[in-house]
């Protein structure tokens, strides 16, 4: 695998400035045409629209997934609090909330305890 250095970058830019094609540059430098082309584009700051769109799509999907998880977790925490208020054992309610999808971090925050302690209580320790 080729490690691009400032010297190789300068040589690539000089050969391109001299009017050589990427195939000719690649032959002179002992690399593939696509390696020369890709490096040239990166040096010139070219970002393909497809790359940007993929990043935006992934970020939006991740954001929606996180929001859905937090909504579900909030509902589970509300149910856990209601169960405890109705007389259910705290450990049992915590265990049920976790089994339904709430994290021990969120459960612990409700009671002002660590996630480890929430885990211990939920498992009867």
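^ structure tokens above, recovered residues below v
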């Amino acid at each position: 695998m080729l490690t691009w250095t400032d010297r190789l970058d300068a040589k690539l830019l000089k050969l391109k400035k001299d009017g050589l094609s990427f195939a000719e540059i690649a032959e002179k430098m002992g690399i593939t045409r696509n390696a020369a082309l890709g490096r040239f584009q990166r040096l010139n700051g070219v970002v393909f629209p497809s790359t940007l769109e993929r990043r935006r799509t992934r970020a939006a999907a991740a954001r929606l997934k996180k929001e859905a998880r937090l909504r579900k977790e909030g509902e589970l925490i509300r149910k856990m609090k209601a169960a405890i208020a109705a007389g259910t054992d705290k450990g049992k309610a915590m265990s049920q909330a976790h089994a339904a999808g709430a994290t021990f971090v969120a459960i612990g925050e409700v009671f002002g305890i660590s996630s480890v302690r929430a885990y211990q209580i939920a498992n009867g320790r």
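Residues 73 and 103 are 8 Å apart (CA to CA).
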